[in-house]
């Protein structure tokens, strides 16, 4: 009964693509264990290879630090492109294209004008990265332990989606105030040129609500984006090692593994940009205009307006996501954190499916 029941369960999961093949699996090499341990999504690296235990407080703290570097540095680096993208979204009559947007910005504000909003970008996305990557690791391990070893493998994509959505909920609360300041600086000429000017002015005009009125559309933009970012990345890494990389991950050097990380990150980034772009357009306009609501902005933009600036965002988010994963994984390598390999079918599940002798 096990093969039939478990196969039907896996096929019923809408997020389980690609479905594992029910073929006779090769016997895995067994490594000696010091004692019984709870197996999570994937076994952590060997103890003599790492600086801390998988799932320890130090592990979570260092993952959060990796998130600060990966998100804070990359988002700040693409501020000029982000500025032009925001202006395309909120004033399409003036800014016709990416090239036109850059030319007009330099003509009106000089080259320094392209760096407007760098401070709230760095602070806001550093805080977001801390919560996004740190809480993702926390929720992934927490949900995996609740599900158990076999269900974790069968429903692993659903696990990635749930863990990333949970993490992003808190990450956006941390990001919202700085995102509101950034958009106001970048899209409202003459309002403010620095964070020190912008934040007090917004508070004086609208109170605390000025910094959080965009949090709901931010959730609409960032939660689907992050779910795609993490789930697509995790499954792409799995597929690359299975079908594209000519040797097992354990035989790849650290630099080769980071190339796989960058490639999977870029692929995930393209899908992220498409999924989250309509909500991104709403956030940009909402933070520019005082007194508007998300539904009013959506009606004003229309079906075509919400897709303005998509090409710029694909370029930006694709590169950004690839670099974020590369930096995050590099931090793990540098500090010798556990880096579990792609998940493999548990031995207990193989026995139930009759895949072992």
TrEMBL record:
PROSITE patterns, alphabetized: SOLCAR
Cellular localization per UniProt: Mitochondrion inner membrane
UniProt catalytic activity: phosphate(in) + H(+)(in) = phosphate(out) + H(+)(out)
SUPFAM superfamilies according to UniProt: Mitochondrial carrier
UniProt membrane topology term: Multi-pass membrane protein
Statement: the UniProt record of this protein carries the keyword Membrane: yes
One of the Pfam families matching this protein, by short name: Mito_carr
Subunit details: Interacts with PPIF; the interaction is impaired by CsA.
Cited function: Inorganic ion transporter that transports phosphate or copper ions across the mitochondrial inner membrane into the matrix compartment. Mediates proton-coupled symport of phosphate ions necessary for mitochondrial oxidative phosphorylation of ADP to ATP. Transports copper ions probably in the form of anionic copper(I) complexes to maintain mitochondrial matrix copper pool and to supply copper for cytochrome C oxidase complex assembly. May also play a role in regulation of the mitochondrial permeability transition pore (mPTP).
Name of the protein in its database record: Solute carrier family 25 member 3
Originating organism: Gadus morhua (Atlantic cod)
Gene: slc25a3b
């Amino acid at each position: 009964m096990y093969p039939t029941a478990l196969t039907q369960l896996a096929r019923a999961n809408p997020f389980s693509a690609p479905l594992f093949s029910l073929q006779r699996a090769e016997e895995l090499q067994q490594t000696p264990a010091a004692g019984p341990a709870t197996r999570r999504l994937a076994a952590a690296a060997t103890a003599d290879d790492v600086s801390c235990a998988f799932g320890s407080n130090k592990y979570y703290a260092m993952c959060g630090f990796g998130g600060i570097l990966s998100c804070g540095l990359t988002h700040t680096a693409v501020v000029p492109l982000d500025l032009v993208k925001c202006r395309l979204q909120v004033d399409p009559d003036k800014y016709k294209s990416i090239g036109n947007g850059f030319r007009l910005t330099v003509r009106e504000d000089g080259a320094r004008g392209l760096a407007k909003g760098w401070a709230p970008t760095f602070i806001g996305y550093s805080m977001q990265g801390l919560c996004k990557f740190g809480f993702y690791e926390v929720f992934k391990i927490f949900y995996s332990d609740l599900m158990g070893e076999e269900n974790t493998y069968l429903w692993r994509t659903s696990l990635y989606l749930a863990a990333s959505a949970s993490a992003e909920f808190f990450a956006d609360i941390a990001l919202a105030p700085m995102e509101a300041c950034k958009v106001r600086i970048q899209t409202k000429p003459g309002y403010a040129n620095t964070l020190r000017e912008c934040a007090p002015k917004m508070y004086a005009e609208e109170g605390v609500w000025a910094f959080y009125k965009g949090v709901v559309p931010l959730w609409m933009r960032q939660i689907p984006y992050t779910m795609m970012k993490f789930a697509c990345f995790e499954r792409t890494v799995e597929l690359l090692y299975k079908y594209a990389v000519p040797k097992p991950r354990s035989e790849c050097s650290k630099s080769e593994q980071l190339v796989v990380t960058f490639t999977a990150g870029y692929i995930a980034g393209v899908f992220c940009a498409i999924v989250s772009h309509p909500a991104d357009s709403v956030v940009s306009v909402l933070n520019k205009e005082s007194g508007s609501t998300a539904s009013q902005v959506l009606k004003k933009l229309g079906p075509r307006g919400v897709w303005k600036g998509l090409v710029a965002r694909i370029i930006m988010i694709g590169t950004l996501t690839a670099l974020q994963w590369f930096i995050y994984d590099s931090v793990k390598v540098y500090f010798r954190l556990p880096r579990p390999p792609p998940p493999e079918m548990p031995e207990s599940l193989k026995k139930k499916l009759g895949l072992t002798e």
